[in-house]
Amino acid sequence: MRRILLAVAIAGAFVILMGLGTWQLQRLAWKEALIAAAHERPGAAAVPAPGPDTWSGFAIDDWRYRRVTLTGTFGPREAYFWIALTEPNGPLSGAGAMVLAPFRTTDGWTVLVNRGFVPEDRRDPASRPGSEPPEGTVTVEGLVRRDDPPSFITPAPDAASRTFYARDIAAIAGALDAAPPVAPYQIDLVAEETPPGGLPQAGESRMTFTNNHLGYAFTWFGLGAALLGVTAAALWRRSGRRHGPHAAPSSE
Asked: Is there a contact between 146 and 205 (Cβ–Cβ < 8 Å)?
């Protein structure tokens, strides 16, 4: 019975290791497609942002980093996503925040828009005159970004200052009293949307990716191969002891 349980445990461990390796290969294909999209889509011609008729089962990977246009009006309030901008496209970097604002389209739906980066000492709108969003109906361009709910290690938002540490659409839209329906994606304004005064500094979409999935796959497959090797060696040694010169004679 013990041998049967051991065999089942070894087989189960092998199946799990192979499954993890296969999953990492699938993640590798997804990550490579995402990297390709991040390089190709921002340079393509802008298309209208997808409206509510496309939101049922919305496929964010088909739209992520695609350049789109929106026509409507900015809301009067803004929230802040804390960030340390280390590789800026514009002149400003360091600790600060992305300025997030609701944008109500002329078709009657709302999108959360990232207007761009402001340094920590310029977060207060009073410290950056001329950084207000344009008044009235305007058309803007930006890149589609996915929703980014917090994980269990993400700090809680500061409700008083409307500062967030994850770009969670539902939470931020709620803090800004954004009128429904709210799009299941966000928009990062492109650099050309930076106001004349330079703030918020648009065009700061972060599109750098770690891609260690192939190494992880080799690790899991290697562990599976090692498990087979150890098992085979143990069986060979056991067989050798059973049939070796000192094996006990069989009784008739």
From this structure: no
Q: What is the pLDDT of residues 190-247, one digit of tens each?
A: 999 999 999 999 999 886 656 677 787 789 888 888 888 888 887 788 776 666 555 5
What is the rounded CA–CA span in Å between residue 117 and residue 69?
20
- State phi, psi for 90 to the nearest 5 degrees: -100, -170
Quick one: CA dihedral 160, 161, 163, 168, positive or negative? positive
| Sheet strands (E) in 168-227 | 182-189
User: CA–CA distance from 56 to each of 40, 61, 165, 186 (Å)?
Assistant: 26, 14, 27, 16
Rounded to two decimals, the pTM is: 0.74
The token pair that represents 50 in the structure block:
């997808």
> 12 exposed, middle or buried (CB, 10 Å; 0-12, 13-18, 19+)?
exposed
